[in-house]
Amino acid sequence: MKKLINEPGDYVDEMLDGMVAAHPKRVRRLDGTKVLVRADAPIDGKVGVVSGGGSGHEPTHAGYLGEGMLDGAAAGEVFTSPTADQLEEMVNACDGGEGVLCVVKNYEGDVMNFETAGEMAEMEEVEVAQVVVDDDVAVEDSLYTSGRRGVCGTIFVHKVAGAKAAAGGDLQEVTEVAEKVVDNVGTMGMALTSCITPEKGEPTFDLGEDEIELGIGIHGEPGVERTDVMSADEVAEHLTEQVLDDLELDDGDEVATIVNGMGGTPMSELYIVNRRVQEVLGDHGLETWDAWVGDYMTSLDMMGCSVTVLRLDDELKELLGAPADTLALKRMD
Amino acid sequence: MKKLINEPGDYVDEMLDGMVAAHPKRVRRLDGTKVLVRADAPIDGKVGVVSGGGSGHEPTHAGYLGEGMLDGAAAGEVFTSPTADQLEEMVNACDGGEGVLCVVKNYEGDVMNFETAGEMAEMEEVEVAQVVVDDDVAVEDSLYTSGRRGVCGTIFVHKVAGAKAAAGGDLQEVTEVAEKVVDNVGTMGMALTSCITPEKGEPTFDLGEDEIELGIGIHGEPGVERTDVMSADEVAEHLTEQVLDDLELDDGDEVATIVNGMGGTPMSELYIVNRRVQEVLGDHGLETWDAWVGDYMTSLDMMGCSVTVLRLDDELKELLGAPADTLALKRMD
């Protein structure tokens, strides 16, 4: 294993310090925690929107801190949920008097800790709501979840909920529009290689030189099918068709898409995948209103990609197209 | 080798099609070429700013198309200069009557073909200027250059020249400010792994499991020193000190920095490097005015990073901080 790291145990701390060092006017770290919040949090009169989860998925979540998206992002150790007390600190720090929406990816540890944190914050008179994102169409249950996993569709939830909060929506309205995204989004991923965690220093699973894994999650957990190497077009077709099967879209529907890199895949390859994804969508009579291509939710150094499709209506288009100004901003408006 | 590609020979074409498919309202491809231009090019009364070079460095250069940066970007085959006739087509397509600045990385093929293209365009009454970027402090001459190589500092040239053109600067003013960046910027890179080109399908050079290469270029060409694996802090210190030695900055100088990923390195590791880069700059009495962290100029799937430092004055700060709206936009304002 070769990585640009120091002591594996300092990985998350040093990464967070490096983010603050890059953006000292935009984010700050809550003392003694692995929580980053907007430098100007809490914002009076605005619903707070926060998220969090295990590290190793950068720029998820702290990269989405900023105007029009997240107010707070809690980092756990690599692939490990943040603790409930740190989540509660984040919720309190991001409450501008109108309550806080927690956007939670569906993993048992995250869901449990966010629930506990919410209950603790409510005892301190903070109004808290929670949406659980479960967009991965590959598996019904998995190693770390009951129900489907939450993956890259979460970024659309951040964007839409963040925009609604910035536009003055109240907690119920922000929650409802976040749930609308959850109800209309699907994702499926694949890997060419396993990721290597800093602590373990070796691949989480073995994958031969002529094999790929379909239906992979974002923690090096097994996919649903191991198969021979496929071309980029075949990968794009398979992932897109699986997502479309799940979403049951109608001819003429407008969609937004993400072709997301898993961390070790060059952007050129993601564009090659996107080319075919858009063709497949066109063949189904769908209209792509916006297409994102890049590393949005990664799995350390894993090579691979995922395809996310979101069914749009006028409200979602308006919120997805609203300005956002975040650390990792990649054509968000 | 495992890559998300189809036929290696279609790599560049399909990548460009995938970019247009993602951003059809923002960019278009000139027929029969590998040139992308802003959808609204040429912009009447504005100096055109264009660049180009071999593919494999994405998001360089086409990712920087858009308001406040580039009007045109020409892609060659992987690590191969675009042809002079395609460069000329780009220059003509981006001339809004005020002339065109070509931003050229210092490689013999690029410099020669851009010069030829400029002469051809001038015969058609287009005013053309050229700046050659040679920011790599690692080597004085290299496999593909006489003089230093042009690497990630080029992105600062795109940003500053693009902002000056957007602000109404004439060709001479835009050229002068681009040259000011060239005179004040330095970069040094390193690799943990070699890149693998689509056509060749195997590493360009061999690097042992316990070795890294310092002073690497962006084409898999050899670095200046092969050494044992170093920690992220040691890498950050070495690269930053080499760049500072070259720039001869004064105590209290303000700088902008890029910690750039080579394509296969996760963003978390780049932030860990950035943490130490900023500490080293602080130890030298320098003030970081802006810090970029991410994949700006890559070398296919290579794991590694580079550090870029730019000495700032008031003019450069204003232009660096001006809004930009590009495909690959990563916190450009």
Automatic annotation (TrEMBL), chains A, B:
Name of the protein in question: Dihydroxyacetone kinase
CC terms in the record's Gene Ontology section: cytosol
Gene3D superfamilies: Dihydroxyacetone kinase, domain 1, Dihydroxyacetone kinase, domain 2
Entry keyword ATP-binding: yes
One Pfam family matching this protein: Dak1
Lineage of source species: Archaea, Methanobacteriati, Methanobacteriota, Stenosarchaea group, Halobacteria
Keyword line: ATP-binding, Kinase, Nucleotide-binding, Transferase
UniProt domain DhaK: residue ranges: 7-329
Keyword presence, ATP-binding: yes
GO biological process entries: glycerol catabolic process
Domain of life: Archaea
Organism: Haloprofundus marisrubri
GO molecular function, one term: ATP binding
